[in-house]
């Protein structure tokens, strides 16, 4: 089980650290498993504040994090919690923001609301945006409107539903365009007029080690996810343009989009650690490993930089400048590889695609997260995103032959008909205000895949591990092009 599920399973018991402690006898406290669960509580709070659930991006983020002493404890910790049956903990204030989150303008949502009927809204919530068997969301649904709390001092937002009798043309406009509303093809290439934004995941270059996306099994060689996603984006951009698309890259260098650097985030990191029950953290992680490293100001401020500030900066670029019809988030997956200095190969190799959804109540208690999710529901982004993601991932499945990854954690749920498609709440697929297809093909530390990735992008086949093999990057690109072509050929007007 992963660290993620440790914190998540602890949360599901919904008790506070303090209340839990008060329920424990001295002998229980002395036991190893309970000590683990107390640390787990604090990790949960820290995870929530840092948006672990919303930000952990790859399946790799669950599994390829530094090894954790917590990972052996969840089942026992959960059992200890259930036996003690403490009362639920008080929830955080309803106006609280996620780390580095901005106060949203709720009046903008009011105009969106008229797009969905109550039935449409409830179906989308139940089948895509809610967790499977999750607790109720923090809002009320009446016959005419959704009533959403903003913060303790403010009037709740009242978002009226569309009446079944309202005409389609009266709906509020969207910035992005569905396949069906693009201009007719009239004999032109299949992606004509379509604006596709490519988001090469991570930063790469000299930042790859900091962002824990640097994998090397021998001196002088390495695969860095941020460099490979940029390479994939550059090759893909040319193919998509040849099919008529307008293509933009949210980053085109191995450099951050955000202007903020970790040193400027140290105070935020300290505050988050203090709030999580670690008021006197160590500053540097030099010489530390495992969870001790995670609890330093340095590690937390770096994470805020490359995983939170960076994605917010990309969101601003996508939403305010580029305004595309869709975003393709390009990633490569990994299985747990252990310590960066002594990585391990994995026999697994797989593929999946993420669409936005599967929000926990804890995530929705954050005001900006609640707002961003409702924006997506009320614009009906899922109506385009899920079939589009399905077509794209089926294309990649054909070109790579990879089997579907299977989530066993409650932070993701299957949606639609394809075994490759999961809904999950990530910062990137939440804040981009258009359909987002978030791709996770290949396990970078699968030995044959690692060697294919080391060979970079090439056409034809080359000898790798005694076999003539195609380029993994080329297979990735061909699959995406094939999937997009298939989707827009079916959905566009001729
Ligand atoms: Zn990634």
Largest sheet: 7 strands, mixed
Query: If you consult CATH, what is the topology of the largest domain?
Result: Aminopeptidase
Number of helices: 19
List each distinct ligand once: zinc ion
What is the structural class? alpha/beta
Q: Label the overall shape.
A: globular
Unreliable stretches: 1-38, 51-83
Strand order of the largest sheet: 7-4-8-12-9-11-10
How big is the Rg?
A: 23 Å
CATH class of the largest domain: Alpha Beta
Distance between the termini: 49 Å
Task: Provide tags for this entry.
binds zinc ion, 14 strands, Aminopeptidase, alpha/beta, disordered N terminus, 494 residues, three-stranded antiparallel sheet
Q: What does this entry look like structurally?
A:
This protein is of the alpha/beta class and 494 residues long. It folds into 3 domains: 3-84, no CATH class; 106-170, no CATH class; 179-491, Aminopeptidase (3-Layer(aba) Sandwich). The chain contains 19 helices and 14 strands. Mean pLDDT is 84; it is low at 1-38 and 51-83. It binds zinc ion. The site of zinc ion (ZN) has 6 residues, from loops.
């Amino acid at each position: 089980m992963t660290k993620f599920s440790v914190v998540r399973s602890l949360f599901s018991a919904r008790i506070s650290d303090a209340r839990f402690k008060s329920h424990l006898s001295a002998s229980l406290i002395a036991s190893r498993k309970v000590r683990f669960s107390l640390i787990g509580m604090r990790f949960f709070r820290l995870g929530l504040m840092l948006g672990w659930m919303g930000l952990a991006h790859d399946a790799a983020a669950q599994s390829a994090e530094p090894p954790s002493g917590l990972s052996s404890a969840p089942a026992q910790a959960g059992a200890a919690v259930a036996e003690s049956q403490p009362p639920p903990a008080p929830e955080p204030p309803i106006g609280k923001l996620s780390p580095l989150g901005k106060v949203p303008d709720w009046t903008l949502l009011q105009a969106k609301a008229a797009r969905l009927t109550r039935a449409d809204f409830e179906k989308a919530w139940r089948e895509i945006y809610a967790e499977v068997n999750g607790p109720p969301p923090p809002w009320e649904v009446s016959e005419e409107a959704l009533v959403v709390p903003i913060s303790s001092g403010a009037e709740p937002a009242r978002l009226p539903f569309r009446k079944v009798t309202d005409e389609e043309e009266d709906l509020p406009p969207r910035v992005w365009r569905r396949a069906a509303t693009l201009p007719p093809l009239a004999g032109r290439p299949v992606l004509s007029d379509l604006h596709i934004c490519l988001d090469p995941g991570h930063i790469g270059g000299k930042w790859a080690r900091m962002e824990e996306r640097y994998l090397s099994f021998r001196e002088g060689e390495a695969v860095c996810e941020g460099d490979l996603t940029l390479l994939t984006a550059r090759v893909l951009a040319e193919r998509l343009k040849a099919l008529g698309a307008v293509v933009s890259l949210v980053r085109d260098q191995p450099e951050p989009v955000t202007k903020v650097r970790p040193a400027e985030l140290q105070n935020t990191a300290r505050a988050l650690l203090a709030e999580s029950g670690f008021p006197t953290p160590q500053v540097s992680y030099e010489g530390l490993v495992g969870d001790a490293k995670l609890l330093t100001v340095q590690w937390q401020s770096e994470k805020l930089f490359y995983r939170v500030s960076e994605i917010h900066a990309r969101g601003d670029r996508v939403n305010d400048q580029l305004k595309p019809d869709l975003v393709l988030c390009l990633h490569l997956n990994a299985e747990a590889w252990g310590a960066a200095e002594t990585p391990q190969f994995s026999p697994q190799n797989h593929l999946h695609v993420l669409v936005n959804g599967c929000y926990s109540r804890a995530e929705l208690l954050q005001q900006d997260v609640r707002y961003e999710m409702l924006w997506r529901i009320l614009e009906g982004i899922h109506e385009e995103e899920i079939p589009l993601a399905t077509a794209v991932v089926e294309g990649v499945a054909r070109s790579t032959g990879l089997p579907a990854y299977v989530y066993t954690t409650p932070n993701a749920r299957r949606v639609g008909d394809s075994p490759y498609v999961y809904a999950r709440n990530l910062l990137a697929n939440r804040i981009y205000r258009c359909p987002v297809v978030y791709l996770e093909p290949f396990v970078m530390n699968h030995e044959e895949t690692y060697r294919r990735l080391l060979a970079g992008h090439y056409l034809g086949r080359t000898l790798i591990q005694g076999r003539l093999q195609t380029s993994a990057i080329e297979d990735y690109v061909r699959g995406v092009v094939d999937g997009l072509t298939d989707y827009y050929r079916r959905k566009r007007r001729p």
